[in-house]
């Protein structure tokens, strides 16, 4: 085994990344959907958007996270799912910054954004609907 070579098949790397990012987005969306009214109020209190637009964003955001997460987990329309994820995560980085609070070292959304970019460039990888459709 050479330490400069991959340990296994490189087809599995996108699979692990998209499943982790997809699970995170799916669970985050479901948690926000569980208390949607409270989440809408939180989005309005950020003060980044006008109140009526913040209400629409607060309602749509959990659904976009759920749809994007599901697409990534299944590997179905993976590039679209990764684009949606990167748009959402880019917005989170814009709103909260790279270093959000003194208590946190780093905004985790930057790392998740990089994972989304990785999926956009590498494709779905192993065990995906996209790969199954491509191979026939």
Quick structural gist:
By secondary structure, the protein is mainly α.
Describe the structure.
With 136 residues, the protein is mainly α. The chain has one domain (12-129). 73% of the residues lie in helices and 0% in strands. It has six helices and no strands. α4 (78-96) packs antiparallel against α5 (108-122). It starts with 11 loop residues before the first helix and ends with a helix.
Task: Throw out a few tags for this protein.
136 residues; mainly alpha; 6 helices; 73% helix
What's the arrangement of secondary structure elements?
Blueprint: H1 12-34, H2 36-46, H3 51-74, H4 78-96, H5 108-122, H6 129-135
Helix pairs in contact: 1-3, 1-5, 2-3, 3-4, 4-5
Tell me the strand percentage band. Answer: under 5%
Cα-based radius of gyration, to the nearest Å: 17 Å
Portion in helices: over 70%
Mean pLDDT over all positions: 92
Q: How many domains make up the 3D coordinates?
A: 1
What structural class do you assign from the helix and strand content?
mainly alpha
E-strand count: 0
H/I helix tally: 6
Distance between the termini: 34 Å
Largest sheet: none
Basic shape: globular
- Weakly predicted, low-confidence segments: none
The string of secondary-structure elements, in order, is: HHHHHH
């Amino acid at each position: 085994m050479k330490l400069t070579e991959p340990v296994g098949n490189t087809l599995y790397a996108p699979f692990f990344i998209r499943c982790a990012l997809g699970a995170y987005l799916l669970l985050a969306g479901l948690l926000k959907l569980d208390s949607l009214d409270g989440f809408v109020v939180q989005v309005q209190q950020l003060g980044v958007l006008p109140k009526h637009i913040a209400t629409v964003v607060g309602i749509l955001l959990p659904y976009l996270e759920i749809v994007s997460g599901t697409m990534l987990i299944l590997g179905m329309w993976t590039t679209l799912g990764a684009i949606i994820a990167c748009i959402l995560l880019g917005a989170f980085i814009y709103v909260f910054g790279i270093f959000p609070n003194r208590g946190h070292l780093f905004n985790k959304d930057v790392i998740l954004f990089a994972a989304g970019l990785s999926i956009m460039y590498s494709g779905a990888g192993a065990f995906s609907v996209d790969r199954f459709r491509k191979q026939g």
